Amino acid sequence: ETATITAACGGKSGTRTVQVVVPKYSVTVTNGNAFDKDNNVISAPIKAGAIVQLMPTYTFDDMVFSKWTVTSGDVDISDLTDPFASFEMPAEDVAVKATYKDKIVLSNLSATVDAPVAGAMPDLTVTTSGYGYTAKVEWWIKEGEVWTQVDDEPFVAGQEYSIYIEFYAADGFAFASEEDLTATINGEPWF
Protein backbone atom coordinates (compact mmCIF):
# COMPACT_ATOMS: atom_id res chain seq x y z
CA GLU A 1 0.00 0.00 0.00
CA THR A 2 1.13 3.56 -0.54
CA ALA A 3 0.70 6.84 1.31
CA THR A 4 1.22 10.36 0.00
CA ILE A 5 2.92 12.88 2.28
CA THR A 6 2.83 16.61 1.54
CA ALA A 7 5.12 19.00 3.43
CA ALA A 8 5.49 22.79 3.31
CA CYS A 9 8.29 24.89 4.76
CA GLY A 10 9.28 28.51 4.08
CA GLY A 11 6.87 28.89 1.20
CA LYS A 12 8.03 25.77 -0.54
CA SER A 13 6.14 22.51 -0.60
CA GLY A 14 6.74 19.04 -1.84
CA THR A 15 4.91 15.77 -2.17
CA ARG A 16 6.32 12.31 -1.68
CA THR A 17 4.68 8.97 -2.14
CA VAL A 18 6.00 6.29 0.13
CA GLN A 19 5.49 2.57 0.17
CA VAL A 20 3.92 1.40 3.43
CA VAL A 21 4.47 -2.20 4.32
CA VAL A 22 1.33 -3.66 5.91
CA PRO A 23 2.13 -6.88 7.74
CA LYS A 24 0.13 -9.91 6.69
CA TYR A 25 -0.30 -13.20 8.48
CA SER A 26 -1.12 -16.73 7.44
CA VAL A 27 -4.16 -18.82 8.36
CA THR A 28 -3.77 -22.60 8.37
CA VAL A 29 -6.86 -24.79 8.77
CA THR A 30 -6.55 -28.54 9.26
CA ASN A 31 -9.64 -30.57 8.25
CA GLY A 32 -11.34 -27.42 6.97
CA ASN A 33 -11.06 -24.16 5.06
CA ALA A 34 -10.86 -20.46 5.84
CA PHE A 35 -12.90 -17.90 3.87
CA ASP A 36 -12.85 -14.09 3.70
CA LYS A 37 -15.93 -11.86 4.07
CA ASP A 38 -16.77 -12.43 0.38
CA ASN A 39 -16.64 -16.24 0.81
CA ASN A 40 -13.37 -16.60 -1.11
CA VAL A 41 -10.97 -19.27 0.14
CA ILE A 42 -8.08 -17.61 1.97
CA SER A 43 -4.93 -18.97 0.35
CA ALA A 44 -2.45 -16.15 0.99
CA PRO A 45 -1.45 -14.15 4.09
CA ILE A 46 -4.01 -11.53 5.21
CA LYS A 47 -4.07 -8.33 7.26
CA ALA A 48 -4.73 -8.24 10.98
CA GLY A 49 -8.34 -7.27 11.66
CA ALA A 50 -9.80 -9.17 8.70
CA ILE A 51 -12.74 -11.47 9.51
CA VAL A 52 -11.99 -15.15 8.88
CA GLN A 53 -14.88 -17.57 8.42
CA LEU A 54 -14.27 -21.26 9.09
CA MET A 55 -15.85 -24.33 7.52
CA PRO A 56 -14.92 -27.96 8.25
CA THR A 57 -14.44 -30.48 5.46
CA TYR A 58 -16.79 -33.39 5.97
CA THR A 59 -14.82 -36.40 4.84
CA PHE A 60 -15.71 -38.89 7.56
CA ASP A 61 -18.92 -40.91 7.01
CA ASP A 62 -19.02 -42.25 10.56
CA MET A 63 -18.07 -39.00 12.29
CA VAL A 64 -19.51 -35.53 12.83
CA PHE A 65 -17.94 -32.13 13.53
CA SER A 66 -17.15 -31.65 17.22
CA LYS A 67 -15.28 -28.36 17.69
CA TRP A 68 -12.51 -26.04 16.53
CA THR A 69 -9.16 -26.24 18.28
CA VAL A 70 -6.61 -23.41 18.08
CA THR A 71 -3.22 -25.04 17.55
CA SER A 72 -1.21 -21.85 17.06
CA GLY A 73 -1.79 -18.15 17.69
CA ASP A 74 -3.89 -16.11 20.09
CA VAL A 75 -7.32 -16.07 18.48
CA ASP A 76 -10.86 -15.83 19.84
CA ILE A 77 -13.17 -18.04 17.74
CA SER A 78 -16.82 -16.91 17.91
CA ASP A 79 -18.11 -20.37 18.96
CA LEU A 80 -15.78 -23.36 19.12
CA THR A 81 -18.68 -25.80 18.58
CA ASP A 82 -20.15 -23.98 15.55
CA PRO A 83 -18.90 -25.57 12.32
CA PHE A 84 -19.26 -22.17 10.62
CA ALA A 85 -17.55 -20.05 13.28
CA SER A 86 -15.44 -16.98 12.59
CA PHE A 87 -12.71 -14.89 14.17
CA GLU A 88 -10.89 -11.59 13.71
CA MET A 89 -7.39 -12.14 12.37
CA PRO A 90 -4.80 -11.21 15.01
CA ALA A 91 -1.37 -9.73 14.26
CA GLU A 92 0.24 -13.16 14.11
CA ASP A 93 0.00 -16.41 12.18
CA VAL A 94 -2.92 -18.64 13.19
CA ALA A 95 -3.53 -22.38 12.90
CA VAL A 96 -6.85 -24.03 13.74
CA LYS A 97 -8.10 -27.56 13.42
CA ALA A 98 -11.59 -29.02 12.95
CA THR A 99 -12.02 -32.00 15.26
CA TYR A 100 -14.60 -34.74 14.89
CA LYS A 101 -16.41 -37.24 17.09
CA ASP A 102 -18.18 -40.52 16.38
CA LYS A 103 -21.81 -40.30 15.37
CA ILE A 104 -24.24 -41.69 17.94
CA VAL A 105 -25.69 -44.93 16.59
CA LEU A 106 -29.42 -45.44 17.15
CA SER A 107 -30.72 -48.99 17.30
CA ASN A 108 -34.25 -48.54 18.68
CA LEU A 109 -36.80 -46.36 16.91
CA SER A 110 -40.37 -45.81 18.04
CA ALA A 111 -43.20 -43.81 16.52
CA THR A 112 -46.89 -43.31 17.21
CA VAL A 113 -49.39 -42.55 14.45
CA ASP A 114 -53.09 -41.97 15.04
CA ALA A 115 -55.35 -44.56 13.40
CA PRO A 116 -57.53 -43.36 10.51
CA VAL A 117 -61.02 -42.17 11.40
CA ALA A 118 -63.77 -42.33 8.78
CA GLY A 119 -64.59 -38.81 7.53
CA ALA A 120 -61.43 -37.28 9.02
CA MET A 121 -58.51 -35.97 7.00
CA PRO A 122 -55.26 -37.98 7.14
CA ASP A 123 -53.12 -36.99 10.10
CA LEU A 124 -49.54 -36.67 8.88
CA THR A 125 -48.18 -36.17 12.39
CA VAL A 126 -45.74 -38.73 13.78
CA THR A 127 -44.75 -38.69 17.43
CA THR A 128 -41.34 -40.23 18.05
CA SER A 129 -40.35 -41.44 21.49
CA GLY A 130 -36.61 -41.03 21.21
CA TYR A 131 -34.05 -38.39 20.44
CA GLY A 132 -31.73 -38.12 17.47
CA TYR A 133 -34.31 -38.86 14.80
CA THR A 134 -37.56 -37.69 13.25
CA ALA A 135 -40.12 -39.44 11.08
CA LYS A 136 -42.67 -38.63 8.41
CA VAL A 137 -45.81 -40.55 7.47
CA GLU A 138 -47.73 -41.02 4.24
CA TRP A 139 -51.12 -42.75 3.80
CA TRP A 140 -51.75 -44.79 0.63
CA ILE A 141 -54.67 -46.70 -0.92
CA LYS A 142 -54.57 -49.33 -3.63
CA GLU A 143 -57.14 -48.91 -6.41
CA GLY A 144 -56.81 -51.88 -8.71
CA GLU A 145 -53.09 -52.20 -9.39
CA VAL A 146 -52.30 -48.52 -8.70
CA TRP A 147 -51.18 -47.09 -5.36
CA THR A 148 -52.30 -43.50 -4.69
CA GLN A 149 -51.12 -41.28 -1.89
CA VAL A 150 -53.94 -39.89 0.26
CA ASP A 151 -53.26 -36.58 1.96
CA ASP A 152 -56.08 -34.22 1.04
CA GLU A 153 -59.17 -36.45 1.09
CA PRO A 154 -61.05 -37.75 4.14
CA PHE A 155 -60.73 -41.39 5.14
CA VAL A 156 -63.51 -43.66 3.85
CA ALA A 157 -65.04 -46.34 6.10
CA GLY A 158 -64.22 -49.86 4.91
CA GLN A 159 -61.32 -48.71 2.69
CA GLU A 160 -58.00 -50.46 3.35
CA TYR A 161 -55.07 -48.07 3.78
CA SER A 162 -51.34 -48.62 3.84
CA ILE A 163 -48.98 -46.44 5.78
CA TYR A 164 -45.45 -45.46 4.84
CA ILE A 165 -43.20 -44.16 7.61
CA GLU A 166 -39.70 -42.89 6.96
CA PHE A 167 -37.20 -42.24 9.75
CA TYR A 168 -34.47 -39.59 9.47
CA ALA A 169 -31.34 -39.44 11.62
CA ALA A 170 -30.52 -35.97 12.96
CA ASP A 171 -27.06 -34.44 12.53
CA GLY A 172 -24.55 -36.34 14.61
CA PHE A 173 -26.64 -39.52 14.64
CA ALA A 174 -26.73 -42.63 12.47
CA PHE A 175 -28.95 -45.70 12.34
CA ALA A 176 -27.57 -49.14 13.16
CA SER A 177 -27.47 -51.67 10.34
CA GLU A 178 -30.91 -53.05 9.48
CA GLU A 179 -30.24 -56.38 11.19
CA ASP A 180 -29.36 -54.52 14.42
CA LEU A 181 -32.24 -52.03 14.24
CA THR A 182 -35.68 -52.41 15.78
CA ALA A 183 -38.61 -50.13 15.08
CA THR A 184 -42.04 -50.09 16.64
CA ILE A 185 -45.12 -48.30 15.35
CA ASN A 186 -47.97 -47.82 17.85
CA GLY A 187 -46.26 -50.36 20.09
CA GLU A 188 -46.10 -53.08 17.40
CA PRO A 189 -42.83 -54.31 15.80
CA TRP A 190 -42.33 -52.64 12.43
CA PHE A 191 -39.41 -54.73 11.21
Order of strands in the sheet with the most strands? 13-12-18-19
Shape: elongated
Structural class: mainly beta
Number of strands: 19
Strand-residue proportion: over 45%
Please tell me the overall pLDDT. Answer: 87
Cα distance spanning the termini: 68 Å
Order of helices and strands: EEEEEEEEEEEEEEEEEEE
Largest sheet: 4 strands, mixed
Low-confidence stretches: none
The proportion of residues forming helix, as a percent range, comes to under 10%
Number of helices: 0
Radius of gyration: 30 Å
Description:
It is a single chain. This protein is mainly beta. Helix content is 0%, strand content 52%. It is built from no helices and 19 strands. A hairpin with a 2-residue loop joins strand 1 (2-9) and strand 2 (12-19). The N and C termini lie far apart (68 Å).
